[in-house]
Amino acid sequence: MGMYDTVWIDGTPWQTKALGKNLRDYEVGDPAMVERIPITAVDYEEARTHHYDELPRRYLIPVMAVREVIIENGRIVGFASEDDFDELFLDRFDYRGRDEHDQLAHIFGQQRELRTYHPGQLHYPPRPRARRRPEVDDFEEHP
Known about the structure:
Layout: E1 5-9, E2 12-16, E3 25-27, H1 41-46, E4 50-52, E5 58-63, E6 67-72, E7 75-79, H2 82-87, H3 100-108, E8 117-119
Parallel strand pairs: 1-3
Antiparallel strand pairs: 1-2, 4-8, 5-6, 6-7
């Protein structure tokens, strides 16, 4: 699955990439924000993740492609109920943090303005390279 974040609910770990895939652990009540994972090479060159310019007060993100978690006022609340699905059908994000409404607006029609985003987490700096050990042939023989 690659890098992901873990949301712990009732002692059970649930994985998601929608929070920026930084290998962080979250619990109910922790601050969290959806981060858009780039899907094109151009977007990825710009940044590792992108932050939305505006987020709704309440929205849903998937965990393990099985359940949905509610984030309200920037904090994890818990699992979504059926009523939450009905209420937040325009404020759902997929497992890569992409707005589902924006992705499907060209098919089903646009019911609100598309969300804008900007570069969020920049790429990690390159790791320092270890010095190469000299080969035996690299040494000159001294008389």
